[in-house]
Specification:
The protein is an alpha/beta fold. It has two domains: 5-81, 2-Layer Sandwich (GMP Synthetase, Chain A, domain 3); 90-354, P-loop containing nucleotide triphosphate hydrolases (Rossmann fold, 3-Layer(aba) Sandwich). It is built from ten helices and 15 strands. The protein has helices spanning 5-12, 54-68, 110-123, 140-143, 190-202, 222-230, 244-258, 293-301, 313-321, 332-354, and strands spanning 16-17, 22-23, 30-36, 39-46, 74-81, 95-102, 128-132, 152-155, 161-164, 167-168, 171-175, 209-215, 235-240, 266-276, 305-311. The protein has an eight-stranded mixed sheet with strand order 10-11-7-12-6-13-14-15, sandwiched between helices. Strands 3-4-5 form a three-stranded mixed sheet, with helices on one face. Strands 1-2 form a two-stranded antiparallel ribbon. Strand 14 (266-276), helix 8 and strand 15 form a beta-alpha-beta unit. It is globular. It binds adenosine-5'-triphosphate. Adenosine-5'-triphosphate binds at residues 103, 106-112, 134, 137, 139, 218, 272-273, 309, 311-312, 315-316, 319. Keywords: ATP-binding, Hydrolase, Iron, Iron-sulfur, Metal-binding, Nucleotide-binding. Pfam families: FeS_assembly_P, ParA.
Length: 355
């Protein structure tokens, strides 16, 4: 008996995406179904290339077809992704999702998380940009080994001149740091900083991006207002360290995003420097700053906890030398960032499906 498309699709309609709470057929994730005798080929189109459930969903499809259609079928599934889009406005129509990385306090590792998040998403195949909006200490150029970079510009056919973001590790990078002398402090006044940031958003040739990661300055200030009120934000990732003093400021940051005028969805909390782990004894974890502070905070605010990042010398070195640890996916530290990137992409997809 010939296997039909209807049979295969009916079998696959038993597989549910646990995040989106609908079956893969209704979600239109099954594409290009071709059947040759007992060979079944199709594409599974996910909502993000960083989907942490990629393998689980692929296996569930195979099991469903074998169970409901033919136990001996030869099933080939190609997994691709089409990143879904949060609400958008026309001048940034090519940017699907703007993700803010924020912290209540300085020095907790916000830029480290932003940079590694960008690299992790890009290494999964997503189109990614990073905009360093930290007026107090733009550290993204150093993290990407682009300190000496001076972005070029080009004139479009309509006469508009656009900034060309340099690309490194698959990520398009722009920073206020590119436009200031690194040896001179820049006393940005509120309006000046806001207009500089708007230029980096509006007058840059970002091209088509799945995710634009924005590294915000610490705290709550003008830049936060400029960005959250001027652009459609998919959500914010909140970075904290486990100490009570950092958590107290993180609470304020969270509350700011939840204020009615802002109303930025919280994608979740990342706890950085959660524990010290010596590279030679990676199974030993020393919770020197206290344990589970970030997790408890996420519970209190009823937002996702996205994961812990250990305190490791290699992370400091990676930042200083322009070699983000996310480039080493098999290391403990690289894996920590890749897992978090998967969870962030997952939260964005869930929110986009709910809009
Ligand atoms: N998990 C970690 N392990 C070791 N070092 C880390 C870790 N996270 C961050 N660092 C280091 O701590 C320093 C501060 O990190 P980072 O610049 O990311 O913080 P920040 O919150 O963005 O700071 P700022 O408020 O100045 O923008 C950097 O030298 C960075 O390499």
């Amino acid at each position: 008996m010939n296997i039909t498309s209807e049979q295969v699709l009916s079998a696959l309609s038993n597989v549910e995406d646990p995040d989106l709470k609908k079956d893969l057929v209704s979600l239109n994730m099954i594409k290009d179904l071709v059947i040759n005798g007992r060979e079944i080929n199709f594409t599974l189109e996910l909502t993000t290339p960083a989907c942490p459930m990629k393998d689980m969903l692929k296996n569930a499809c195979i099991n469903a077809v074998k169970h409901f259609v033919d136990a001996d079928a030869n099933i080939n599934i190609q997994v691709t992704a089409k990143v879904t889009q949060s609400l958008n406005q026309s001048n940034l129509a090519e940017i699907k999702n703007i993700i803010l990385v924020s912290s209540g306090k300085g020095g907790v590792g916000k830029s480290t998380v932003a940079g590694n998040l960008a690299v992790s998403l890009a290494s999964n195949g997503a189109k990614v940009g990073i905009l360093d909006a930290d007026i107090y200490g733009p550290s993204i150029p150093m993290m990407f080994d682009l300190q000496d970079e001076k972005p070029g510009a080009k004139e479009l056919e309509n006469g508009k001149v656009v900034i060309l973001p340099p690309e490194k590790y698959g990520v398009k990078v722009l920073s206020l740091g590119f436009f200031a002398d690194p040896n001179q402090p820049v006393p940005w006044r509120g309006p000046m900083a806001s207009s500089a940031i708007k230029q980096l958003f509006n007058d840059a040739d970002w091209g088509a991006l799945d995710y634009l990661i924005v590294d915000l300055p610490p705290g709550t200030g003008d830049i936060h207002i400029t960005i959250t009120q001027g652009y459609p934000i998919a959500g914010a990732v909140i970075v904290t360290t486990p100490q009570e003093i950092a958590l107290a400021d993180t609470r304020k940051g969270l509350l700011m995003f939840q204020m009615p005028g802002m109303n930025v969805p919280i994608l979740g909390v990342v706890e950085n420097m959660s524990y010290f782990t010596p590279p030679e004894l990676p199974e030993n974890k020393y919770y020197i700053f206290g344990k589970d502070g970030g997790k408890k905070l996420a519970e209190t605010f009823n937002v996702p906890f996205l994961g812990e990042i250990p305190l490791m010398e290699t992370i400091t070195e990676g930042g200083d030398k322009g070699n983000p640890v996310a480039l080493m996916p098999d290391s403990i530290q690289g894996k920590a960032f890749l897992d978090i990137a998967g969870k962030v992409a997952q939260q964005v997809a869930i929110r986009n499906a709910g809009e």
